[in-house]
Specification:
Elements lengths: L11 H23 L4 H17 L5 H23 L5 H37 L2 H11 L18 H14 L5
């Protein structure tokens, strides 16, 4: 090795955040196309969170426990909503794992942004463009005489959760 050569090191957190971004994008795409979020994606996000936690510079035990408690509460409330048919099971799991990544401090912005993006997505699906998007996604032709059939158009809410999770988790690391 010459004296001018430097050893290049990669911050492990960058690796975990890149994996997080890739899996969140995959979850959004799969949910948009199939209205399902596969469990291996959720499991991968959990494993990456644990790896990221190991290399996080300011992760105190209290902060980690608070984050886990917050994610557990999200999962519990989501499970109740799921049992009543108000939200998908994959959405519950994805929001809980997004909460792990966001942490307690970024949890309120995560929920707010998820609601705003999800609401926008739901409104979009009510438009003629949304009917065409749904038709392309499902393979069913839209009914031009009756407009969009709102009771038959589930919203791929995993898209909103994934985008929100990316924004509140990745953006603070861009400094």
């Amino acid at each position: 090795m010459t004296t001018g050569a430097r050893l290049m090191t990669i911050d492990p957190r960058l690796v975990w955040l890149t994996g997080f971004a890739a899996l969140m994008i995959a979850a959004a795409v799969v949910d948009f196309r199939r209205l399902i979020i596969p469990n291996p994606l959720i499991g991968g996000l959990c494993v990456l969170w644990l790896l990221d936690l190991e290399t996080a510079p300011h992760a105190t035990l209290a902060a980690v426990l608070a984050t886990i408690g917050c994610a557990a509460a999200v999962f519990f409330v989501g499970a109740v909503l799921f049992s009543r048919g108000l939200i998908g099971g994959g959405d519950v799991k994805l929001l809980a794992v997004a909460t792990l990544w966001a942490g307690v401090e970024a949890f309120p912005p995560l929920l707010l942004l998820t609601g705003l993006i999800g609401g926008f997505l739901a409104l979009l699906l009510l438009t003629p463009l949304g009917a065409r998007i749904t038709a392309a996604r499902t393979g069913l032709a839209p009914d031009p005489d009756h407009g969009p059939q709102t009771h038959q158009m589930p919203v791929p809410y995993g898209v909103a959760i994934a985008v929100s999770g990316l924004v509140v988790t990745i953006v603070p690391h861009l400094n």
